Amino acid sequence: MSDARPISMQNIADAVGVSRATVANALSGRGRVSADVAERVRAAARAMNYVPSHAGRALRTGRSTLLGLVVPDFSMPLFPDFVRAFERAAQAQGMALLVGDSMSDPAMQTKRVQDFLGRGIEAAIVIPLRGEPFDPDAFPLPVVIVDSDANPANVSSSDHRQGGRLAARHLVELGHRKVQILRSAAQSYVSQDRVAGMREVFDDAGTQYDEAGLRPDFDSGRDFALQWEMNDTTAVCAAYDAIAVGVMSGLTERGVRVPDDLSVTGFDDLIWGRIVNPPLTTIHQDLSSIADHALAVATGRAEGSLLSPMTLVTRSSTAVPRFSSFFQTRKIA
């Protein structure tokens, strides 16, 4: 039967003919170790498939190498992208990430953090549920909130208000003067900030707009588009890509052409918006920047909050309004 015990620093030290302390210094880049010895140690570690013991490090330093990330609902397509960004950031810091799904349940959100506590995490990052109070100070370890600038507890997020301004400015510059804003019906800080930015630009430009609150999903956007009395509206400015793609589906069913008859913008740059026809003009989040800062605060390497700027991604779902090509010659079904 083979020996399944993991390779230790002592095994490497014996193979190279140096002390265990020398191996530790060579692998960590600390202490006085010649370049030749350090390279021999690293080569032996690679050849022996050495894996550092995080449990041993925790015992020596009194700090864990585990982080917990709690997301609101894995069924929403944005959150796997968040997990990927945080996983990359954790790996860059030599840490491991535990991920929990709140499943849209406030009690489950709290339970996930408590479960992670029992597993010895060093800190937790929480993307909180919409409209539900969550106190990061209620736990005996650092809890970092990723939400929106409108949330006083927010530590790291996109500048959602700036993103709303970008989407609205794009439509104004194309010449749209009557727009439908689609926000989240729930009390979402993110949606509130995005829509506030849209309103700022539309108000300054004298652009008319109506608002409707929907669930942030495909079906709500499609249902809205199928029942909507469009009148002379020439653009839809949605707070989420899922809503925008649903709107485009419903419009297609009604024979409304995007962007020839109606322009549509979204938010978050999801894969859905890249594969829909036509591809969706949207606002992109810098998730890597958000994750890097959140982890830096969680591990005590940084302080304060950060708002990461958003960028406009222009695709084929928006165009100059053609007022006479549809509304004056066709009747909406």
Which terms summarize this structure?
alpha/beta, 42% helix, elongated, Rossmann fold, 333 residues, single chain, disordered C terminus
Task: Tally the helices.
Answer: 12
Structural class: alpha/beta
Order of helices and strands: HHHHEHEHEEEHEHEHEHEHEHEE
Return Rg in Å: 25 Å
Please give a structural write-up:
The structure is a single chain. This protein is of the alpha/beta class and 333 residues long. The chain folds into 3 domains: 9-52, no CATH class; 66-157 and 287-306, Response regulator (Rossmann fold), CATH 3.40.50; 160-285, Rossmann fold, CATH 3.40.50.2300. It is 42% helix and 16% strand. The chain is built from 12 helices and 12 strands. It has helices spanning 9-16, 20-28, 35-47, 54-61, 78-92, 106-118, 160-174, 189-205, 218-227, 241-254, 271-275, 287-298, and strands spanning 66-71, 96-101, 123-126, 143-145, 156-158, 178-184, 208-214, 235-238, 263-265, 282-284, 306-308, 311-313. The strands form 4 sheets. It has a 4-stranded parallel beta sheet with strand order 2-1-3-4, with helices on both faces. Strands 7-6-8-9 form a 4-stranded parallel beta sheet, sandwiched between helices. The chain has a two-stranded parallel ribbon with strand order 5-11. β8 (235-238), α10 and β9 form a beta-alpha-beta unit. α1 crosses α2, α2 (20-28) crosses α3 (35-47) and α7 packs parallel to α8. The longest helix is centred in the middle third of the chain and has 17 residues, at 189-205. Residues 58-62 and 324-333 have low confidence and may be disordered. Residues 7-61 form the HTH lacI-type domain. Pfam families: LacI, Peripla_BP_3. Keywords: DNA-binding, Transcription, Transcription regulation.
